[in-house]
Amino acid sequence: MSTPNKGVDYAQALQSLRSSALPMRTDLPEKEALLSQYHPDYGQGARTTLPVGANAGEFCHPDLAELLLSRPLIDDFDLAGAVPMYTDVLVIGGGGAGAAAALTAAQAGADVIMANKLRIGDSNTVMAEGGIQAAVGEEDSLQQHFEDTLKGGHNAAEQDLVAQMVTDGPAAIRWLIGLGMTFDLAAGSDNNGRLQRKRAGGTSIPRVLCYRDFTGLEMMRVLREAVELERGITQLNRCPAIELLSDEHGRCVGAVLYDLERRKLLIVHAKSVVLASGGSGRLHLQGFATSNHYGATADGLVMAYRMGAKLRDVDSFQYHPTGVAHPPHLAGALISEAVRSAGTHLVNGLGERFVDELLPRDVVAAAILRECQEGRGVLRDGTVGVFLDTPRLIAKDPDVLQRLVSLAHVAHKCGVNPAEEPLLIHPTLHYQNGGMLIDGNGQTNIAGLYGAGEVTGGIHGRNRLMGNALLDIISFGRRAGAAAAQSGLPLKRARGGIAHIYKLQRELTRAGIKSDIKAPILYPDYGTFDLREHAGIQENTHAKA
């Protein structure tokens, strides 16, 4: 992370901004050189090699690796008094991917239990402000969307998954509209109901559909309402998953949950499981602030890896260029890419633009970090960042804040009048590019275990374009839900246990690896939550090694 040990004093930088015509610096390095020097994924200590497990010998972020190789929270002894439940499909996660999977599975005739760590909708979905990509314009095509996505992800994505996602785009929009979701319409009295389309970083054509600048919130609204009206779905709020269940064949047949309100363990036996538990932003990798919701602590990856699920690209993360830098107590709060799409410029402490604001996010973030590290950032109260020049945008377009409602809200919380004063911004940890390896139906390499959303990998490569996350969760959420509903054991009441966790523990022991960490951690360390203490679980000295 950039250290605020040099830069231009805020007052001086503000004077330069107001008196400058915003000349453009011309010394930005080529993309690969810029990323290798300044992007956090390439920094010292940004990756390690996993010694055991399904991804032995492959790269992983060190903080995530510690969790993947940690000790479990429970053992067999703890399950003796757990309350059993039974269902066809268990969906773990209350965000957009989980909701789409649950709805699709239930509508296919399956009984569904939806286990939410917090409440339905408490997820990164509601924080996706900018919009959703779908090739619905006359001048657009599925091929262009496909090529933009591959290029933006450094050609590292799985092409079949990308092709499937972009092909699903138009149908996903129709499905959401059918649920009651609102989208902004194109300007003009003769638009004939055409949807407004915007450019996003890394796109070759305007393709992003939105509802003002809180598209994810609007999407989650209709998904939540649909889930609550669907008779085939039972919701378990405030019931985080703490371990998956496996049968004697290694198949995933449910999960162990912890009921936070009743302080007891639940065992949900299921014919199939859809893991839609989200990302890992609350691990604060590289010391960065994050835009992520409180529960984004990589739980799904930990549980899946113990089960033997194959992961990919777990050393690749997205740092959104425009997170709040000042005031410090709001650090990391997201300022939507829609603001840059509307024409706002990024300006350093010398009153200069230094990057095309609509380049892919990893490039823009690295360019901002370069300015901060080389002393051209803006220093304010010990914080370093660059300016988001909202005053010029609002002067050109006085009605823009009526469209960018979230910008006005964030500025108000920061104590800034965006028409008169720029916001100070800095990259924020935003998205987990990698995750579980899946096929086109969300199936992992573990029978009975499906994945959807940010917990999966391969769809975005090593950098995600704005708007593709919301499309991803609908496309693969629906596909995983449909596949899970048709999958599973012939018996209604599939049973399982947690024997698989001891297999990985034995591998660690043979490799001479010891850990004092217990995971999944459920909540950030500053949440000071200890499951065993909260549940009154005594340490079992006879646990299996």
Notes on the structure:
The chain is α/β, with parallel strands linked by helices and 545 residues long. Helices cover 30% and strands 18% of the residues. It contains 16 helices and 22 strands. The strands form 6 sheets. Strands 5, 6, 9, 10, 11, 12 and 20 form a 7-stranded mixed β-sheet that branches. Strands 1, 14, 15, 16, 17 and 18 form a 6-stranded mixed β-sheet that branches. Helix 6 (159-179) packs across helix 14 (468-486).
The average pLDDT value, as a whole number, equals 94
Structural class: alpha/beta
Q: Any low-confidence stretches, pLDDT <50, length ≥5?
A: none
Strand coverage percent:
15-25%
Tally of contiguous helical segments:
16
> How many strands appear in the DSSP assignment?
22
The coarse overall form would be globular
Cα-based radius of gyration, to the nearest Å: 23 Å
Q: Largest sheet, if any? A: 7 strands, mixed
Amount of helix: 25-40%
Distance between the termini: 38 Å
Topology, element by element:
Layout (H helix, E strand, L loop, with lengths): L7 E2 H10 L11 H8 L9 E2 L9 E2 L1 H7 L2 E2 L10 E10 L3 H12 L4 E4 L16 E2 L8 H11 L6 H21 L28 E2 L5 H15 L3 E4 L4 E6 L5 E8 L4 E12 L23 H9 L3 E2 L4 E8 L12 H5 L4 E2 L13 H13 L4 E3 L2 E6 L1 H7 L3 H4 L1 H9 L9 E10 L2 E3 L11 E3 L4 E2 L10 H19 L13 H11 L7 E2 L11 H5 L10
Parallel strand pairs: 1-16, 4-22, 5-6, 5-12, 6-9, 12-20, 19-21
Antiparallel strand pairs: 2-3, 7-8, 10-11, 11-12, 13-19, 14-18, 15-17, 16-17, 17-18
Helix pairs in contact: 2-10, 4-7, 4-14, 5-6, 6-14
What tags apply to this protein structure?
545 residues, alpha/beta, 7-stranded mixed beta sheet, 6-stranded mixed beta sheet
